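User: For my dataset I need records formatted as: sequence, then structure tokens, nothing else. Please produce one.
Assistant:
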Amino acid sequence: MYPPWRGSEWKVILVLCSLIVLACLIAAVVLAARPQLRRAVLEAAGRPAMAVAPPAAVPEPDPQTLEGVLSRQLMTGEITGLQYRNAMASIASRDAARHPLDVPSQTDPPEPA
């Protein structure tokens, strides 16, 4: 059963919708294959593709903060989640004691933006 449009209008709409769906599928494929396409284009142009070192070969920088050290220990399994949360709670309480927040009073007028 044909749509209620007269003449060949429905065919034009069907073709336009098909083209839109086709364009979306092509865009999805291009986005999914982008790294492989770039490598193939560079190799075809005679330029070597950028060498990417395997993740294990790239040395990770040492953490610069206590929070970073704790995060790394948690990720490597050296400490449990409970130990991590307890350590972070003690860091937070120590930080609150050393650097308390200076909250303005309610009577101060707001600063202009």
